Amino acid sequence: MSNLSSDNKNIEILDNGKIISDVIDRKIKELSTVDNEEPFYVLNLDSLLKRHLRWITNLPRVKPFYAMKCNNTPAVVRTLISLGIGFDCASKAEIQHALSLGATPDKIIYAHTTKPLSHIRYACTHGVDVMTFDSEDELLKISLCHSQAKLVLRIATDDSKSLLRLSTKFGARMASVGKLLEQAGKLGLEVIGVSFHVGSGCTSGLTYKKAIADARHVFDMASLLGFQMKLLDIGGGFSAIDDFQDKFEEFSGVINEMLDKLFPPDGGVEIIAEPGRYYVESAFTLAVNVMAKRVVANEADEQNNGEENSPDKTIMYYVTDGVYGSMSCITTDAAHNKLEPYPHRAVDGSEPRYPSVIWGPTCDSLDKITENYFLPELHVGEWLLIDNMGAYSVSLVSDFNSFERARIYPVVSAETWDTLNLSHTYSIIP
Ligand code: PLP
User: Fold this and answer.
1) How far away, in angstroms, is 163 Cα from ligand 1 center?
2) Which of 69, 91, 168 should be mutated for ligand 1, with most atoms under 8 A from CB?
3) Could you tell me which residues are beta bridge partners of residue 155?
4) 418 lies in a domain?
5) DSSP assignment string, 161-180
6) CA 237 – ligand 1 centroid, Å
7) How many CB atoms neighbour CB 158 within 10 A?
8) Interaxial angle between packed helices 174-186 and 205-224, expressed in degrees from 0 to 180 and rounded to the nearest 10
9) Cα-flanking dihedrals φ and ψ of residue 76, to 5°?
10) What is the distance between the alpha carbons of residues 72 and 51, in angstroms, rounded to a whole number?
11) DSSP 110-152
12) What is the value of pTM for the model shown?
């Protein structure tokens, strides 16, 4: 389901010492006065800027083209445009969305190897020329609808060390690359580069090493066939939360070394990437309301369980957002599927903790956020917060049971507001 309707042009400036938690406190108070317990996000635009600075420090040669599929919230897209970032779009609607918010066609790569004909035509008529392919059939379609396209051949990677694999579905095997290039030549199409994606939650730098070496091989084959290759796209899959906190720096080291060896700066090849989760993952904090609760007495044998002081009850909480809303990552995203909600209110260290199960609001028992999770006892009406909810959350919300989707409230520090010159785009909330 698309998030395109929620174009909130209001933004709150964090000035006079105000911090994110002040905004959350106030929002919760406001909601309680209007009898509303809907979930909401606070979107911290400073986090996007921080991630971008970390990107350019670590990968100075690699231009990011943000993968819109990850989170297409207008405030995110606008902020990234003001940072000079390009976009990876996967459909006509994503291209439309990027263009409508101010992205220019030369800053868009249509990075989907299997595209509907009408979407290719749309790209053509709107000046989006760079697009990926990995099969002869796609080449034929592109030759019919967009013969001037600048094509990027996506190759498969060995993504067996990634938590979420993509090369099972996309990417040409090295053995078929020669034939694909020949076919492109026969159809009079221009192939300008190579792309790959190592999958999400990549745990080994060797995956990048091998993929960049394979890309070099394709470049060499292509130039023998007369193509002027000038673009290398190293895809997405970057993260810097949970177990991946330091991986970004580690992988950047591997990538830079390989690029300098195989695609040196004076070689005339532009290097881009398609990061999604890296940019947005830590920018969103979700607040959900405890709308119902059920205390279940533990059976005697569960209580003893060989341990002293085993709790005598488990508490089930039912909150206003869940797996069919913002939290589908629990079932679909192997790279980020353990969420850690924490109480919004201050918790005294001496308060007893109880084993808890947190359920989403729908009627389905798959809609479970976490279990065997220790929390102090909460009451109906209290709030839980979840950090790092920016990636593959708002872009995957379904309409199941028609619960309200979480509203998004963007905030920014006064410093970032000035740095990014956001006054052209937003109205300030006093
Ligand atoms: N590029 C392509 C083609 C993708 O399919 C994806 C994710 O599915 C991405 C980029 C973004 O990946 P990530 O969010 O893991 O960086």
Assistant:
1) 13
2) 69
3) 172
4) no
5) TEEE--TTTS-B-HHHHHHH
6) 6
7) 16
8) 40
9) -70, -50
10) 17
11) E--SS--HHHHHHHHHTT--EEEE-SHHHHHHHHHH-TT-EEE
12) 0.94
Residue nearest to atom 12 of ligand 1 (CA): 236
Q: Which SS3 state, helix, strand or coil, does residue 398 take?
A: coil
Report the catalytic residues: 363
- Is there a single domain that holds both residue 186 and residue 311? no
CB 355 within 8 A of CB 309: no
pLDDT at 311: 76
CB distance 64 to 273 below 8 Å: yes
> Is residue 429 one of the residues assigned to a domain?
no
CB of 88 within 6 A of ligand 1: the answer is yes
Which pLDDT score, from 0 to 100, does residue 165 have? 87
End position of a domain, from candidates 263, 280, 297: 280
- Specify the pLDDT at position 4: 41
Does the Cβ of 166 fall within 6 Å of ligand 1? yes
Q: Structural domain of residue 26, as residue ranges? A: 12-43+282-413
ipTM of model: 0.99
- Report residue 371 as tokens: 């279990």
Å from CA of 317 to ligand 1 middle: 33
Query: Do both 75 and 16 map to the same domain?
Result: no
Q: Average pLDDT by consecutive 10-residue portion of the chain (430 residues)?
A: 56 91 96 95 97 98 98 96 97 98 97 98 98 98 98 94 88 97 98 96 91 98 97 95 90 98 97 97 98 90 56 94 96 88 96 96 97 96 97 96 95 92 75
**Ligand 1 atom at shortest distance from the alpha carbon of 335:** 15
Same domain membership, residue 167 and residue 99: yes
Question: Which DSSP category does 2 fall into?
Answer: -
d(CA 322, ligand 1 centre) in Å:
23
For atom 9 of ligand 1, the residue with the nearest CA is 236
Q: Can you say whether residue 242 is alpha, beta or left, with left for phi > 0 and alpha for psi between -120 and 50 degrees?
A: left
Nearest residue (CA) to ligand 1, atom 15: 237
Q: Please tell me the distance between residue 22's alpha carbon and the centre of ligand 1 in angstroms.
A: 33
Tally of domains in the chain:
2
Regarding the beta carbon of 134 and ligand 1, being less than 6 Å apart is answered no
H or E segment to which residue 183 belongs: helix 174-186
Buried b (16+ CB within 10 A) or exposed e, 288-318: bbbbebeeeebeeeeeeeeeeeebeebbebb
Of the candidates 147, 131, 219, 146, the one whose C-alpha atom is nearest the C-alpha of residue 188 is 147
